[in-house]
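Morning, I've got a small favour to ask if you have a moment. I've dropped the whole record in just underneath, so have a look.
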Amino acid sequence: MSQTEDEAVRESAAPAGAPQRYTRRLSDKVLVAFHHACDQGDFEVAEHLLHVLEMMLTRRPLTPDGTRRRNMESLVAAHERLWHLRHPQSEQL
C-alpha cells in the first residue's frame, strides 16, 4: 500500500461519530493529486491541479506559519516536473 493510500485508510478509520482528523493540509493533498495525475500521464488534469495549487499558495496567508518558502519551492518543482514530462526531448540536448 502506498503512503497516500495508507494515510487515507488511517483518516477514514475513525470510529463512527468521531470527529475526522486530517493529517495533511489541503494544499498537500492537491500536490499529491498533481503527482498522481503526472504518474498516470494525465497532463491536462495535472495542469489544472497545478493552477489550483498556485492559487492556494500565492494568496495572502491566513497565518504566518513559516512554510511559505517551502511551499513555493514545491510549487516551482511541480511546474518543472510538468514541463519536463511535456518536453522529454529537451533532456536529451
Q: What stands out?
A: The chain has four helices and no strands. Residues 37 and 45 are 6 Å apart (CA to CA). Helices lie at 3-12, 26-40, 43-58, 68-86.
